[in-house]
Amino acid sequence: xxxxxxxxxxxxxAVVAVSLVLAGCVQPMPSPPPAAVPSAAYDQLLDDVxxxxxxxxxxxxxxxxGGERARAYIVGRLEAxxxxxxxxxxxQPFEATGRSPEGPTTFRGANILGLIxxxxxxxxxxxxxxxxxxVGTRDGQIYNGADDNASGxxxxxxxxxxxxxxxxxxxxxxxxxDGEERGLLGAREFVKAPPMxxxxxxxxxxxxxxxxxxxxxxxxxxxxxxxxxxxxILEPVPAVGPVSFAFGKDTPxxxxxxxxxxxxxxxxxxxxxxxxxxxxVDYHPDYHRPSDDFDRIKPEVFISATELAIAGFHxxxxxxxR
Length: 322
Description:
The chain is α/β, with parallel strands linked by helices.
C-alpha cells in the first residue's frame, strides 16, 4: 500500500480464536455460506505470511533476489493447490520505470496469475489481486512487510484453496502483482495487456493489508462511492469475530492519504474503467516501517479479517451478473 512515501503460541491463539468464532460469534449469512473450515486449515494462512515476511525475503523489492524468492514461493503454492495458469502462462513479466528513493528507476518484475473456472458465468471474471512486493531494505534494515502485503497474498491464497474445493460462479483470475510499491507497475502492465478483454472483467477485488484490524475492528471497503451497486451486497455480511466491514475512503471529502481510490493496484483498474473494490485495514504504527513483522500480527484478528473478506467475495460472486 503506497499512499505514503513463538510460532506455536500464535497457532494456539489462532485455534482458540477460531473455536470462539465457530462457537457462535458469527451470525448466519442471508444465504448458505461455504462449509466451515477446520481450525487446523489456518496453519497455512499464517505460514504464508510468516514465510513471505521472513528476513530471507529481504523485503521483496521488485527485481531483487528476495522478490524472486517470494515469487517462487507463491508459484509453488498455486501449483500445490492445483490452480491453473492464465491462458498466456503463469507469469506476466514486465519492465517499467517506477519510483525509488534514488529517483526514477527501471524495474524488471513479474505478475503471477492463476485461473479457476466458474460454474454459472464462466465468461465473466472476478480478478482477485494482492501485491507481493514490498520496499526491500533501506539503511541496512529489512522492511519485511508482513501486513503490507504478505497478509493480502495469504488471504488471496486461502480464497484460492476454498475455490478449488468449491468452484466459484464467476471465473476467478488470481493475480499476485509485482511493483505496486514502485507505482502500481504490475497492475498497469496487466490492464495494458490482460489475458482476457477488460470488458469481460466484472470486478477487481484487491486485498492490501488485511491483518492488522485490531485498532478499530474494521476491514475497510473502498470503491462503493464509485460503484454504489456493490454496497447493498456487502452491507448484510455480518462481522466475523472482532472485525466488520466499513465503507469509505473514496469520496471527494476524503483527502490526501485518507483517499484510497488510487492507493493500491485497484487504482490501475479504476483508471481503465474496470469496476473495483479494495479491502484493507487502516494505517498502523508499523506501516512502511522495519517493524511490520509477523510477530506484530494477532492471529485471531487476521483470521477473522480473512474470513470476512472471503465472505464478501462469495456475496459478490453469487449476486453479480444475474
